[in-house]
Amino acid sequence: MSFFVDCFVSATSLLKSMDAELCEVVWVSVKVSLISTFFASLLGIPLGLLISLHQFRLKRLVITVLNSLLALPTVLIGLFVYSFLCRKGIFGSWDLLYTQTAITIGQIILIVPLVTTFTIATISRLDGRYKKTAMTLGANRFQTSIVILREARFGIISGIAGSFGRVISEIGVSMMLGGNIRGFTRTITTAIALEYDKGEFVFAVALGIVLMVLSLAINILINFFQGKMQH
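Given the sequence above, the corresponding structure tokens read:
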């Protein structure tokens, strides 16, 4: 127990000193995760809206597939993207492997289903009269979609926050596609794994504290917007 306490105290001191390497790792994680979440939202929200507002033969199957993709292991996504970005892959000449861009691509694939399913679930809980009223008042499809998105905004934002929490805490994609390169592609989770292997528990604990604080902040944000939905 004393070992953990000593590590925690030392980690706290390291955080207070704003260690340059620690700040670099946190910045890379936050930067890549924010970019991934942004582009996943650009893809997932319109897709979720499209699926929610239209009836088609395979709709139930599409939703089932999306729900299944939520449990897709990150290492499989890493392996899939790696096969395209490695030297023998289709995009091997682009030299994207072991870059922040490669991590971003993998993380986008990881959370697009999450953003989409959150959007579908939120819109499905809305009163159907919103759509009918908007169309009765002469709104076109685009204007009707805007009305529905505005009413569903708190649930969608909650989904976006949850998606950010998913990517900032993943390790498979970041390790396989980023390579854990110091000062370039090293993220919080990959750095924790590396420092643990090296026996540098203080640095690993400091990063763990940062990750826990970020997770707590995300959960508070999600609960806030879910509370907004209920009022």
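The chain has one domain: 21-229. Try to locate this feature in the token string yourself.
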